[in-house]
Amino acid sequence: MAKKRPQTKGKQQPQLTEGEIPVVGAREPCPCGSGRRYKACHGRAASHAVTELVRRPFEGLPGECDWVALRELVPAATVALTLKDGLPEGVPSVTLATVLPMAWPALRREDGSVLLGLQNETASGDISRDLADTLLRALDAEPGTPVRARRAPADGPRLQDLLDPEGPFEPVVHTGFEFWVPDAENATPEVSASLERANAAAIPTVRLTGVDSAYWCETPEKNHLRWVMPHAEERLLDALARLHAAGTSSLGEGTRLVGSFRAHGLTVPVWDLPSGVGADDVEKPAAEFAERLAAVLDSDAPLTPEERRARGGLTNRQVTLS
């Protein structure tokens, strides 16, 4: 009989810590050295993070409704962000921007300041975690360089872990994207071309001052008011239906509540406005509507047949953005 060969132990792979394990193909050996495929090892957590949808990713942040508006509705806006631990050395400011040139997720400027883009495709179901990962990498990036997209670690921090919960969130709406570069005349040809395209596509938008998170916008045929509201969806729809059935859901002559968006766990009622109605014209009507809405939001009375029909119409005209 042939002799059995002595069993020898293979060279043990060095074990990596969680933070060091890179993302590889699902069927490739896991870089941690376990001998299993990535999808059956550390890829499980990454896969779960990709598929798990966080319904309200901006919940708990100052200005949640404005986060939603800037993510989905507003073309050009910026907001100064306040970090929990203060600004790192060499970083004079951190600014959230609706979109950045070349669709960069973030940019570390020559002066060390950071611009974080909000309207970008994200790799997981948690926008907050993806943005937090981008922000951390931007803080460490070399000045004058953009930050590229990547899949955030499944156990990485979220914006709620990085931003000061007591910090202000005050969006500044711009008519164009000149805020991208301090000196637009000396921008690179690529950035200049991106700036020109973005400015041409931007819809004129104004944030109302008398109520929170309401944005007027101008389109060729008619104007609109899009108002992101923090109330629970079912209760808000009931309240809107009560006002609609009573004939008190408009913002004045020629205006009409036409439906709503659903975005990142919040509801965004939308009004059609005549083309001659500007942002200033709806400031007072919007404030008066807010008072009417507050008066019926807490009502637990059953909806009347007319109110149920009004609610059904509003629900049928609801569009989900996220």
From TrEMBL:
Please identify the protein, giving its name as recorded. Answer: SEC-C domain-containing protein
Q: What Pfam families has UniProt attached to this entry? A: DUF5926 (PF19348), SEC-C (PF02810)
Q: Annotated region Disordered: where?
A: 1-24, 144-165, 300-322
Q: Give the originating organism.
A: Streptomyces alfalfae
* InterPro entries in the cross-refs: DUF5926, SEC_C_motif
Q: Which domain of life is it from?
A: Bacteria
The record places domain DUF5926 at 57-321
Q: Show the SUPFAM superfamilies listed in the entry.
A: Sec-C motif
